[in-house]
Design a protein that fits this description.
This protein is of the alpha/beta class. Helices cover 30% and strands 26% of the residues. It has helices at 13-20, 45-49, 55-58, 62-65, 117-120, 127-139, 156-171, 196-208, 303-323, 357-371, 375-386; strands at 2-7, 28-34, 72-75, 78-82, 87-90, 95-97, 100-103, 107-109, 122-123, 149-152, 181-184, 211-214, 218-223, 226-231, 233-238, 241-244, 248-250, 274-275, 278-283, 336-342, 345-350, 353-356. The structure holds flavin-adenine dinucleotide. Flavin-adenine dinucleotide (FAD) is lined by residues 7-13, 33-36, 42-43, 45, 77-78, 104-106, 124-125, 157, 251, 253, 285-287, 301-304, 306.
């Protein structure tokens, strides 16, 4: 009996698993491992932070998504992997042998060696991070006395988080003497990778909402309620809360794989999403760089990419188990970008067409509804959005 083990049940692993379960070759045993007890629909974490959507939509429990009769679900952290010996070692000391492995452990925040960042800033990557931010906002008398919230990192996550923090602050009627939220970005522009039209529109909405952007900033140190940075000379910014969205790096689990890394990105894989020279291992999501792309032009680390790859992995895994010949090849197709501004507003770039306001917000919700794991969650989301 072939034993297939899935590690990491996020956008790559969970969706590949669920598609694979639609038609499992007879005699296959399936085990799925994640360190957490719930899937996190990360593009909606801001809605959770802003009390717009609840945990059952943004972070549904695996028990509701994975049929226990077909899959042995293990909640544990994987400590090590030996793909040649086909063995997984869990942090609690247990080991599991597999015939085929599907590996999708995602990314972890990267602090670039900045002193105090890991300890004092609140990263915004996981459901636990969003909960920590919610609690901090509730208990801290934040943004009183003119102290703004500070977001380090002006990528899409940092900008959407800045909008959400601004929204919460204005909803609670908190006032500041200066800007409500300050975004610090290392490069000379925010939202690199998005189109000029989207960037311009987002910048003007940030200004309207009292969100200040400072670019070409090198953050030197983070304290609990302050950031020290260089911008010409050294400066210090007192902040009610410091959020960290300044980068990610692939999961440390990839270090044990005997393959080439793509710069600081994920591992190189074949177009069938198999590990070169180790065909019984499929890798997807943030853990891979784009097969066929040049070093320096890696695949974006997005749910969009992981979701597309999950279908290829499910199909190839099935044919690998049946006749050892995976045939589907992955090719990235960029569908569009969304930036949430508020409960009723967004900016969208759908195949080059830039929209804003209520129409963009509806397009964003429709795109995410389509990708939610099942109808029960979609129904809850619609109910919560309409309430
Ligand atoms: C706040 C936020 C907003 C985002 N918004 C968007 C967006 O709007 N659009 C978009 O396309 N992308 C977005 N992304 C990026 C997107 O979330 C990732 O690219 C995507 O989740 C990658 O999928 P994955 O399967 O590789 O990893 P993940 O979805 O992160 O899943 C990895 C899983 O592996 C588990 N895991 C990791 N290590 C171990 C271990 N050692 N043992 C056991 N389990 C382990 C984790 O618990 C997790 O469940 C956003 C990210 C964040 C943080």
């Amino acid at each position: 009996m072939a034993h297939v083990v899935f590690i990491g049940l996020g956008f790559g692993g969970l969706y590949a698993l669920r598609q694979f379960l639609d038609d499992v070759p007879e005699g296959t045993r399936v085990t799925a491992i994640d360190q957490r007890d719930r899937f996190v629909f990360t593009p909606l974490l801001y809605e959770y932070l802003a009390d717009e959507l609840e945990a059952d939509v943004v972070a549904p429990s695996y028990d509701t998504l994975i049929p226990s009769a077909e899959v042995e679900l293990i909640q544990a952290r994987v400590r090590d992997l030996d793909v040649q010996a086909r063995r997984v070692e869990l942090e609690d000391g247990r080991t599991l042998d597999f015939d085929v492995l599907v590996l999708a452990p995602g990314s972890v925040p990267s602090y670039h060696g900045v002193a105090g960042a890991r300890e004092h800033a609140i990263s915004f990557y996981s459901f636990e991070d969003a909960d920590r931010m919610r609690t901090t906002l509730k208990v801290r008398d934040w943004a009183e006395g003119g102290r703004p919230a500070c977001v380090v990192g002006g990528g899409v996550v940092g900008v959407e988080l800045a909008f959400a923090l601004g929204e919460i602050l204005s909803r609670e009627g908190r006032t500041t003497t200066g800007p409500r939220v300050i975004v610090l970005e290392a490069m000379d522009e925010i939202l690199r990778g998005l189109s000029e039209g989207v960037r311009r529109m987002v910048r003007s909405k940030m200004e309207e909402r009292g969100i200040e952007v400072r670019t070409s900033i090198r953050v030197l140190e983070v304290e609990e309620q302050a950031v020290r940075f260089q911008n010409g000379g050294e400066q210090e910014l007192e902040a009610a809360v410091v959020a960290w969205t300044a980068g990610i790096q692939p999961s440390p689990l990839l270090q044990s794989l005997p393959v080439e890394r793509h710069g600081r990105h994920g591992v190189r894989v074949e177009r069938t999403l198999q590990l070169p020279g180790v065909p019984h291992v499929f890798v997807l999501g943030d853990a891979i760089s784009y097969p066929g792309r040049e070093v320096g032009a890696p695949l974006p680390d997005t749910a969009q990419a992981a979701y597309q790859q999950s279908d290829i992995v499910a199909r190839n895994l099935r044919t690998w188990l049946k006749d050892g010949l995976p045939r589907a090849e992955y090719d990235y197709g960029h569908l569009g970008d969304f930036v949430r501004v508020s409960r009723s507003e967004a900016v969208a770039d759908v195949k080059g067409v830039v929209l804003d306001g209520g129409g963009a917000s509806l397009a964003r919700r429709a795109a995410y509804l389509f990708r939610m794991p099942d109808w029960a969650i979609r129904t809850s989301a619609i109910r919560q959005w309409l309430s």
